[in-house]
Design a protein that fits this description.
Chain lengths: 333, 333
């Protein structure tokens, strides 16, 4: 009897699932609603995972049956106790014979390095930099959450834009077009009305992160404050990347994948990050991953049951994934 | 018939009320639960104000009756629309004949300057710097809320302590004792367990602000990162003070009152702030206000109905307030 492997990437906007056979041949892709732990809770994760897996099985034209190995990469499942809670909840739902759980960042790392040593720098609503060495040791930096430290993330960029606009308003900092752009973005008459919206909870973390594209626009216009913010964000991500490389002792040419909405939405951001990083770490080679994080989750499903990520297996996954536009990212430096 | 004036200072931990006669003679003090708008909502503000006013009337031994003039200084009532909402809600509760509403920061400013031109720098859970000139023009800087910009506040100090401890942990920054102190403070085994508590919502803005005293302890121990954080906090507050002084054109010796939990809890913080400020603004004279912000609210009650804050009136308020320990702050430079 054939064995089926599933990788799931669960985030704040959606849950993606890919199903493949034991030889690495991708058979189908499924999708469901969000499964970020802090957003939907344990029961919500279970439901989204079930829907995403079922949808992928249907897409593959397989009869409805249990998956053999399921690897869940779930946003917010970063700690041992939360991983265990998700594993237990999903196991009880009888979706698969064996269930492994880790954070979504691990899937992005694996998709970027395809199981080899290297680093991924993620800048979405939040940020995190994660690396793995030849002994499989993982180290992370940055991305401790918006309340504490999300350097280089869209939230960081948006918050800095607000902060620096307010500094211009109250006379603590240089003028900037950002204040006007931000007010217009929220349909407000003034910055202080934007602050009202924040006080009332109508503008929160996600909406502030949504200001990042606007800061990158102002960067192109040459606004001094916007230029400063974008440089600082790239610098923080580069410093975190260097810290990770040092901590796990990566040597020679170091592959650094970039992913997340900020990198995917801005070529300028990718280029600036590469420049800053190569100043600090000339051995770094910045790449956009070939495939989406969910493929990383699939590779981890194989590895979790002791399968080696051989060139043959990885290539079969990459080749067959190319049939599904949802799984592919164009490689660009 | 005698007229009675009430000043109310409503914050996140309690609501204080002082009642006085038309000549400025303080007759009683009352207290009730929190009335910070974002914490308790409109109905909660109304209830806390009613309880605080009634409690002050009882304390004064006055018969239960309407107060003539009520000035409410309420945390979170910073914008026109929120002030109006509070005014309407409290007026409908028939607590007083005339109700005025403004932010709690205005009461602190008035308590610090006793109605004269000057500035107040407030560092509590949040921060704000507010100034008034001889024409009554008010300008503010800093303190746009924890999500955006609360430079120099207890939350800022606590968040920086967490952020810099995490930087030490993941290799981005110099070592510091703060990580261990913070873990112990929350009864956690490690910093990453503290981050779990933040993710789970068990440690929030108030608890992070609660780390400020610990940072000031580490400052005394000479921890380099703690020294840096405290200097930076004082510098941000000094820059904000300078920005306010410039914007409203304060000249000659400028009175700068300091208030809020961080200043009140740490002589070192007051001294460091004074040093930083005098570097930037040699004309500044830093003082601790003589009286609590609620006395500022009372003075604003008189002024709101057109009464001049004459030396006679102010002195009578100060002299009679001295009978109530809740209303007095020791003056120290």
């Amino acid at each position: 009897m054939k064995k089926y492997f599933c990788g799931v990437d669960g985030g704040a906007t959606k849950t993606l699932c890919v199903v493949a056979d034991e030889n690495g041949y991708v058979l189908g892709v499924g999708e469901a609603g969000p499964s970020s732990m802090s957003l939907v809770g344990l029961k919500g994760v279970e439901k989204a995972v079930k829907n995403a897996v079922n949808s992928s099985i249907r897409s593959a034209g397989l009869p409805s049956r249990d998956v053999d190995v399921l690897f869940l990469a779930i946003a917010g499942a970063g700690s041992e106790c939360r991983r265990e809670a998700v594993r237990r909840s999903v196991e009880e739902a009888n979706i698969a014979d064996v269930v492994f759980v880790d954070s979504d960042a691990i899937a992005a790392l694996t998709a970027a390095t395809l199981g080899k040593p290297g680093i991924v720098a993620i800048s979405g609503t939040g940020s995190i930099v994660l690396g793995v060495n030849g002994r499989g040791e993982v180290h992370r930096a940055c991305g401790w959450g918006y309340l504490v430290d999300d350097e280089g993330s869209a939230f960081y960029i948006g918050r800095e834009a607000l902060r620096r606009s307010l500094m211009a308003l109250d006379g603590r900092g240089p003028p900037t077009v950002l204040g006007e752009l931000i007010s217009r973005h929220f349909g407000a008459e003034s910055l202080s009305q934007v602050i009202d919206l924040i006080s009332l909870g109508e503008v929160g973390v996600v909406e502030i992160a949504g200001l990042a594209p606007l800061v990158l626009e102002a960067y192109k216009l040459g606004d001094g404050v916007a230029v400063d913010i974008v440089h600082q964000a790239c610098r923080e991500l580069a410093l975190a990347t260097l810290a990770v490389a040092r901590r796990i002792g990566l040597e020679g040419e170091v592959l650094v994948g970039v992913c997340g909405g900020v990198f995917e939405g801005s070529e300028i951001f990718v280029k600036l990050f590469s420049l800053k990083l190569r100043e600090l770490m000339p051995s770094a080679k910045v790449v956009k991953p070939l495939v989406k994080p969910v493929i990383g989750a699939l590779l981890l499903a194989y590895r979790s049951v002791g399968r080696e990520l051989s060139e043959e297996l990885v290539n079969r996954v990459l080749d067959s994934a190319a049939n599904y536009s949802k799984l592919v990212v164009a490689r660009e430096v």
